[in-house]
């Protein structure tokens, strides 16, 4: 019994419970990599369903915030989330991922100068990041490379457990505000045997449907394919990282 009239056994019991709780919380760190793999496999709805619980239990976890940004379909809102990770958790393991997402976002909406600034920041502040290599996305070079046979997209292997997803390159062949137009272009590609899909973003309340064709593990392969697609279909194409 202490001087407040509380049995010492009760005090020790409470202290023990608090210790166990803290250890449990620490051991219960969310597996962000596993959930990113689910998203890559097309199971985003599974992760989206558990996101509210994750955000309640780990309100200031940068990895959970990163998941929230990845699952946010409004590009402007997603960019705010990624920027908040950089502002509040610049030394976390998800800071470079968030910065690379900002680079992709600004490039996708045509703010190339801002995108370049984000890439330079990535190289400067996170030189050891897997994204810090020269990922600059630009229009096709003026010098036309020699004509090459149609490329078959290099098979993409899934990242090993506990590693960040590999950067994959694709060719953006058009951006449409009308979904039907995007579907017609995708149908043309698929008719000719090219794997293609539509990526939709929301910016300032407006939807934009981007038609992507092909998947490559190397940027130079994607560039050669981009040149071929541009000539064959008379389209203005660019290479974009995913």
Overall description:
With 242 residues, the chain is an alpha+beta fold. The protein folds into two domains: 13-125, Alpha Horseshoe (Serine Threonine Protein Phosphatase 5, Tetratricopeptide repeat), CATH 1.25.40.10; 169-241, Alpha-Beta Plaits, CATH 3.30.70. The chain has nine helices and four strands, in the order H-H-H-H-H-H-H-E-H-E-E-H-E. It has a four-stranded antiparallel sheet, with helices on both faces. Strand 2 (196-203) and strand 3 (206-216) form a beta hairpin. Helix 2 (32-40) packs antiparallel against helix 3 and helix 6 runs antiparallel to helix 7 (112-125). The longest helix is centred in the first third of the chain and has 20 residues, at 8-27.
Helix content: 40-55%
Largest sheet: 4 strands, antiparallel
Strand content: 5-15%
User: Strand order across the biggest sheet?
Assistant: 2-3-1-4
Q: What class do helices, strands and sheet pairing give?
A: alpha+beta
- Any idea what the radius of gyration is? 23 Å
Give the helix tally. Answer: 9
CATH architecture of the largest domain: Alpha Horseshoe
List SSEs in N-to-C order: HHHHHHHEHEEHE
Number of strands: 4
Highest CATH level, the class of the largest domain: Mainly Alpha
Average pLDDT over all residues: 76
Kindly report how far apart the N and C termini lie.
64 Å
Shape type: globular
Give the CATH superfamily of the largest domain: Tetratricopeptide repeat domain
* Uncertain stretches of 5 or more adjacent residues: 10-27, 134-159
- Total individual domains: 2
Write the CATH fold name of the largest domain: Serine Threonine Protein Phosphatase 5, Tetratricopeptide repeat
